[in-house]
């Protein structure tokens, strides 16, 4: 019989995932400060579709809406059995809206962004060869995904994946946020948004670009206090930005 202590200890143990999807073996690579990049070329990411997914859960140690700390899970062990999203949503943070986005620059000089804001969902079969699907306000497993057409990877100069908080208070420091890249052969590459800055509203997560004949994904995890325009300035994209709203046009 598994003790409560064993259950809690295992939940905190870093994992390397092995699972089976459609009969094919898949495993997770984690990009960290010590191992910040991976060759998508060597991991089967040269053709087909690269899926970039966003998921998160609010930390169970956060304060509740009234400012009191949550009841200790050791005194209330059933808390450990609650789904993380349910626990997080009881703390007055359901209005936090993490969004997944991607700045792109094509080799012909075309620049732009794929994001929920302004309905800029992109196109998979035509430039920019990126397509955003879904806008999940609760970070469930079926949340936002960007599909990258790697059959057109030669058209890409660089892609910058980032996450921003559209609505609600800054909450990177109160959530476990993960961006996962899944290659065509089902290799999962995970990038955790670690060492969060409490008041940050955006985070540059990963850069994808060609280096020495290979397509490389490099961990960034750089927080900024502003939004897309500040990410743009940080990486020298040189685009003009205006105020925008979801499900409507971006406006100045």
From TrEMBL:
InterPro entries: TerD. It comes from Streptomyces sodiiphilus. It comes from the Bacteria. The lineage of its organism: Bacteria, Bacillati, Actinomycetota, Actinomycetes, Kitasatosporales. This is Tellurium resistance. CDD domains: TerD_like.
